[in-house]
Amino acid sequence: MRYLHTMIRVTDPAATIRFFELLGLKEVKRMENEAGRYTLIFMAPPGQEDAQVELTHNWDPEDYSGGRNFGHLAYRVDDIYATCQTLMEAGVTINRPPRDGHMAFVKTPDGISIELLQDGSLPPQEPWSSMPNSGSW
Predict the structure, then answer these.
(1) Residues with catalytic annotation?
(2) What is d(CA 104, CA 8) in angstroms, rounded to the nearest whole number?
(3) What angle do CA 117, 18, 66 make, to 5 degrees?
(4) Contact 8, 70 (CB under 8 A)
(5) Residue 91 has what DSSP assignment?
(6) Contact yes or no for 46/61 (Cβ under 8 A)
(7) pTM
(8) Listing from the earlier edge strand, what are the strands of the sheet with 70-77?
(9) According to a count of CB atoms within 10 Å of the terminal CB, is the N or C end of the chain lower?
(10) What b/e readout covers 20-58, taking b as 16+ CB neighbours within 10 angstroms?
(11) How many CA atoms lie within 13 A of 40 on its CB side?
């Protein structure tokens, strides 16, 4: 397993970027998704590009109360199906199954969302490809 990033939701990307730049972080990647109406901005300290914070800006205004502005921790796994199977056998609910062979979401016992990402995508595999979501993630 490899740590990837921590995601936070932001209402003013420019102000948040300035804040993280004051801490010494630099923008390393940006992705805009018009269909989903959001922008992802990844920032990291120079020389530590693997230690990223993902700033997620949803274009439609939203009130982030009750910790909703903290998104998730992300980890790359060697085999997303095997990882999810191990978690499920241990009693962990798979909130967003890896139907696409690439991404899944689970939660810690305290409700912190964890994103699991396959490097690339594995071919669809049962029972995962037909499994519905089990809750919010």
Answers:
(1) 115
(2) 18
(3) 60
(4) yes
(5) T
(6) no
(7) 0.69
(8) 26-33, 38-44, 52-58, 2-9, 70-77, 113-118, 103-107, 94-96
(9) N
(10) beeeebeeeeeeeeeeeeebbbbbbbeeeeeebbbbbbe
(11) 13
| Residue whose C-alpha is closest to residue 23's, from 57, 2, 53 | 53
Percent with pLDDT over 90 in the chain? 46
Q: Would the pLDDT of 135 be above 70?
A: no
* CA distances, 132 to each of 61, 109, 127, 128 (Å): 28, 21, 10, 9
Q: Which two tokens stand for residue 15?
A: 């102000």
Of 110, 88, 108, whose CA–CA distance to 98 is shortest? 88
For each of the domains in the chain, give its residue range(s) and CATH number, in order of start: 2-70 (3.10.180.10), 78-130 (no CATH)
Mean model confidence pLDDT for the chain = 88
Q: What is the pLDDT of residue 128?
A: 83
Q: What is the pLDDT, as a whole number, of residue 58?
A: 94
CA Rg value for the chain:
16
